[in-house]
Amino acid sequence: MQGPNLFAPWRIDYIRSLGKPGENRCFICDAAAAKTPDQQRDRLILWTSDHCVVVINRFPYTNGHLLLAPKAHKAELEELTPEEQSDFQVQTTEAIRLLKRAISPQGFNVGINLGRCAGAGLPGHLHQHVVPRWAGDTNFMSVVGEVRVVPQAMEQLWQELVKVRQEMTKDQ
């Protein structure tokens, strides 16, 4: 018996990008280089700091899944300067604060996949995942069907998070 069809058209861009010969572009470097508001919106950049960039993951595990990365194209933690290491942690904390305020998760998974065999989809540019979690978000869809349901469009989430971040910076 065949189950229902679920459509996730945004995944095709990711699938098509895998293993493209001659494709050397790093989406994190592209994000770090974005200057105009249109470029930042298109790349789902929430903010940049002196050493880091914070973006919404285009291929999320759940709604609000963020990626934090150093602006410099470095593959390993030990390559980061002390200033980059410190900023990396500060921006991780800020991302968690933002998500708590904006979408009220009950917990988080925070982590780094170092190397392709460890699950890194972009092993050449170090990045950390901040994944908001809610009680019950491991439901039958992910357990039985190995399917994730992301209930909000990326652009809508970007607008919401940018607005909340602006409010937070006014409060400081």
Short description, anyone?
This protein is α+β, with helices and mostly antiparallel strands. It has helices at residues 11-17, 27-33, 37-42, 82-103, 140-144, 154-171, and strands at residues 45-48, 52-56, 66-70, 107-111, 128-133. The protein has a single domain (25-167), classed as HIT-like (HIT family, subunit A), CATH 3.30.428.
Description:
This protein is of the alpha+beta class and 172 residues long. The chain is built from six helices and five strands. Strands 1-2-3-5-4 form a five-stranded antiparallel beta sheet, with helices on both faces. Helix 4 packs across helix 6. The longest helix is centred in the middle third of the chain and has 22 residues, at 82-103. Mean pLDDT is 83; it is low at 139-145.
Strand composition percent: 5-15%
Note the main sheet. 5 strands, antiparallel
Architecture (CATH level 2) name:
2-Layer Sandwich
Q: How large is the radius of gyration?
A: 17 Å
Mean pLDDT level: 83
Please report the number of helical segments.
Answer: 6
